[in-house]
Amino acid sequence: MKKSDFYYHLPEELIAQHPSEKRDHSKLMVLDYETGELTHNIFSDIKNYLEKGDCLVINDTKVIPARLYGTRKDTGGKIEFVLLKCISGDDWEVILKPGKRAVPGRQFVFGDGQLEATVIKVVEGGNRIVRFTYQGLFNEVLDQVGIMPLPPYITEKLEDKNRYQTVYAKNDGSSAAPTAGLHFTKELLQEISDMGVSIAKVTLHVGLGTFRPVKVDDILDHKMHEEWFYIDRENAEKVNNTRRSGKRVFSVGTTSTRVLESASDDKGILSEKEGSTDIFIYPGYQFKVVDCLITNYHLPESTLIMLVSALAGRDKIMKAYQEAIDKKYRFFSFGDAMLIKKENKHE
Questions:
Q1: Which of residues 96, 120, 145 is at a domain's end?
Q2: In this structure, which of 3, 27, 59, 144 has its CB flanked by the most CB atoms within 10 Å?
Q3: Position 83 in a domain
């Protein structure tokens, strides 16, 4: 299977630079992946496709202001850090540029000296492990000196940084938002819950690897990035109970999907689990847990468009994407949404 099998041409003006005025007023395309039928709605209509007994699975990760601009302590030369993941305590893996002179022992300063970093070592791929020093709480200092790391295709300033967080964001750690969840409001989630739909929470900290292009022609040669995830026993049982009752599991986003498919056994039974996942889902993959998927529109030739193609079928996805282009849907992180659904229940 070739990378080019997942290419489509997207007019640049369809890349959303701003979120919709109201979260749940985005467009929603619904793809029935058994019939291929496409229908068009607004996102708040999502509740019409859920039934009592179904389970909606959301990723409660929270984006941290992971981009830091600072200076070398000795020379004043400029430096940019992007925090990738916490290794332990105050030690973080970071991408930095310019990186050539960021040798072990080099020190950097951010803000008005509220935050300092010392390079500990160079790791594979050229990233660095750094140790931060500061007064007070790290997350509070980071809020003062850090900037939200918007994806590279968003070139305009975000006026309200909370619009790059889901309304249920709780656990700090992501370098990017789980964007399918950006469409939900608290009121819409309450309506869904009042319908008798259970809402299960998982955590997956989204890394910048999610934007890393597939560089190999044969997708089987692609090496997936790792992302940390966690699902507790209570939420695992919500999903298990849904499946036992013959109802459907709706995954909100590719990140929730990666958790569910990584944390289950061969029979699709979930248990409490924590770890890193590098699961690569592409056509031919047999889903063990996820029945329906709420997602945004993904970059051409990305691992994310491969994942949604695994659920719905490549041909149906490429047809749906072309219709979204023809109907001027907005694409990528701040763009419109798609529901990939099926009607039949578990036996």
A1: 145
A2: 59
A3: yes
